[in-house]
Amino acid sequence: MPVLATPLSGFAFIQQPLDRADALRDDHEALSRHWPAARVLVLDADGQAYADAQGQPTLLTGADLGAGPGTAIFLGLAGEQAWFCVDAAVVGAAEAPTRVDLRRAAAEWPAALSTAFAYARGMSYWQARTRFCGVCGGAIEFRRGGFVGHCAQCGNDHYPRVDPAVIVAVSDGARLLLGRQASWPARRYSVIAGFVEPGESLEQTVAREVHEETQVRIDACQYLGAQPWPFPGALMLGFRASAEGGQQPQVDGELEDARWFTREEVGAALARDGADDGNGLLLAPSISIARALIEDWYHRG
Q1: H-assigned helices in the chain
Q2: In contact, 30 and 95? CB cutoff 8 Å
Q3: Which among 11, 82, 165, 258 could disulfide-bond with 38, CB atoms 3.0 to 4.6 Å apart, if both were Cys?
Q4: How many separate domains does the chain show?
Q5: Range of the domain at 67
Q6: pLDDT digits (tens, 9 = 90+) for 218-230
Q7: 118 and 192 share one domain
Q8: In whole angstroms, what is the distance from residue 124 CA to residue 113 CA?
Q9: pTM listed for this prediction
Q10: With 0-12 CB in 10 A as exposed, 13-18 as middle and 19+ as buried, what is 153?
């Protein structure tokens, strides 16, 4: 199957990323110098960020917290200013009149801040679930600005985990294939997605996942773009794919339903976005690459 790379944009968590400044992670003196003026995101155990009464981010400085970076995770630089994230236990609940989840932040915060929040959430989730070595069970200590979990008992190092998943807009030329999970709001459908398995290429994953979930077979796919999706730790790799007409979707497993939707149905759903009248198709939210794939298909005509 031919694969051509073209850009896809318009979704959250990719705009204005930090310079990750990998070389600084081993430089404790440099991190300590940056700490007093650094911006610090505070995340609680549920991955929510501290915010003010209006829901905007509470950005503390290192000087507000005192001491040095300690166990804070070094996220990188914005110009000359360092960014870190810390566990809420460091500052206490009294500092947070509001706590905001990542989906709300993507809709309401400036893009650079929601991108940094997504990055911080993925890192804090990984650390929270990497307390003990998976090889020997020894306790983990974090090094390199929080990016390496080192086991003092057996010496093995553990690194942040990212789970690659494909997400694909499948068309038969006139219609778009969408599915829904039973847990979703009524009438919501989205494009097909699934995780990459060991020993599998991305193109093979696209073909397998589409067929497993809908019994539709594709004949070509094309990579369009990617989105970090830290719910909790996925990287969504977006594709479009073509399928021969006449195939009837069937579900038996993860999806409750899958069907073909016409351009008119998708266009009507896009037109009433944010003003649901209780009728017709509902689509994935605008922060997601799923929505960008749907819009890309629709506007290609």
Answers
A1: 28-34, 62-65, 102-108, 111-128, 202-214, 263-271, 289-300
A2: no
A3: 82
A4: 3
A5: 22-129
A6: 999 999 999 999 9
A7: no
A8: 16
A9: 0.91
A10: middle
